[in-house]
Design brief:
Elements (H helix, E strand, L loop, with lengths): L1 H60 L3 H16 L4 H22 L3 H5 L1 H36 L3 H7 L12 H8 L12
């Protein structure tokens, strides 16, 4: 009779552990999804700012059509990309590169640099980029927590049994990582011609 009680106690502990671990994995997976959603909200905010920025630049530098078209094209591709984080990161890196060329182009037009609307849009875009970076950090932290839980023993047994998969990090490419370590400061502030 004592053996039955011992076996029931062991079974109860195992079932309890499986339930707690399963719920923790669900919670971590939900946090990863929420963090990815936050990144997408900030990227959409950036996408919404870009047409206004392009129109402002077009008023001063309309003959720089190639640069403006590349920004619009990169924006469209980034918006259309709804793939995994690695695929999305490639599209976002292309968009950032074209935006950098747009801001470099603006250096050649003092009237554009002095335009209050351009300065405001540039500031909003910089704020949005900072929000994306913060969201990316939160997302990658959430992915790390989920992936660690999925790999640790004995929670890996529960994760494997219930089909929990590791999430992908949203990583910088090498060029962007190098640029982040040595940021280029472009000031479109209140300089007037």
């Amino acid at each position: 009779m004592d053996v039955i009680w011992i076996l029931l106690a062991i079974a109860a502990v195992v079932v309890g552990y499986v339930i707690v671990t399963f719920n923790r994995l669900v919670s971590l997976r939900t946090r990863v999804r929420e963090a990815w959603s936050d990144i997408q909200v900030q990227m959409k905010r950036r996408y919404d700012l870009i047409p206004n920025l392009v129109e402002t630049v077009k008023g001063y530098a309309g003959h720089e059509r190639g640069t403006l078209e590349s920004v619009v094209k990169a924006r469209g591709e980034a918006m259309a990309n709804t793939g995994d984080p690695a695929s999305q990161a490639r599209s976002e890196n292309m968009l950032q590169a074209t935006l950098k060329s747009l801001f470099a182009l603006a250096e050649n037009y003092p009237q554009l640099k002095a335009d209050a609307n351009f300065a405001k849009l540039q500031a909003e875009l910089a704020d949005t980029e900072n929000r994306i970076k913060m969201s990316r950090r939160f997302y990658n932290g959430s992915v790390r927590d989920l992936n660690v839980k999925i790999e640790q023993f004995p929670s890996n047994l529960v994760a494997r049994q219930f089909g929990f998969l590791q999430a992908q990090f949203f990583e910088l490419d090498e060029d962007e990582a190098a640029a982040a370590s040595r940021p280029v400061r472009v000031d479109f502030g209140a300089q007037r011609s």
